[in-house]
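Lab notebook, bench 4. We co-purified these components, and the gel suggests they stay together. Before we commit to crystallization screens, I want a quick structural picture of the whole thing.
Request: model the full complex, all chains together.
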Amino acid sequence: MVYITRIEHFNAAHKLFNPNWSKAENEAVFGKCANENWHGHNFTLYVTIAGEPNPDTGFVFDVKKLSTIINACIIDKLDHKNLNLDVDFMQGKLCSIENLIIGIWEQLSPNLPSDVKLHALKLYETPRIYVEYFGK
Amino acid sequence: MNPKVAIFRKEHFNAAHRLHNPNWDDETNKSIFGKCNNPNYHGHNYDLIVKIIGYPEPETGYVIDTKKLSDIIKRLVIERFDHKNLNEDCLDFQHLNPTVENIAIVIYNLIRPAIDDALELQIRLFETENNFADFPASSNF
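Here is the predicted assembly.
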């Protein structure tokens, strides 16, 4: 089994905010991440697929094609956007990177060819904070 | 005389912004600034490098105490911009488009008064790993 990873980037605004809580409660739990006027990050997304190298190409899957799929399904929806306001698959969800990575998996997985196995996603919010997700 | 030494301190802040000229119509803004004009904002992890040039002091070996430099940068810049919306929350950008160029100039002007006149100051600000601005511009890259 070989794992191959494609890295993509997007720059986005968001806030951590529970609409069921008061402003004070949000600030107590989320601190400055609750700024009602948003803050932002350069996010880095690692998409890892698994498989055996094809005997004719040597590829698990052509990563240029993988990049095209990731950009169409994910990056075009997230880059230079407001994750809380502009992203259909984050509506009604708290905009933590934990929830975001699950949403990205659910968007991406059905759009990969049936013989391509999505193994893992890793999403960096800053160089010091990242999440990983391996599907359910 | 011994040559001057440059000492660098790196800090970071995370902020939302948009690029927009209020004197233009929406179509012109969109055509010039593209997706950077999103009215709902987008954001960046900004990396700030502050460069101080001077002679090491004989007693300490420091051009400047980098702990004190870090405190200055945090007090004057990071607390001002971190986890903020540059357009909405920061008076510095009330009438100034928060491009990486303009932010670098603003940061220079915030820090300069807190640094001894005998020391040179330069700012390098990364908006992304591929886009960064220097102020003042220097012929040394």
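Helices of chain B lie at 26-33, 66-81, 86-89, 100-111. Worth comparing against the SEC data before the next meeting. The first strand of chain B starts at residue 5 and ends at 17.
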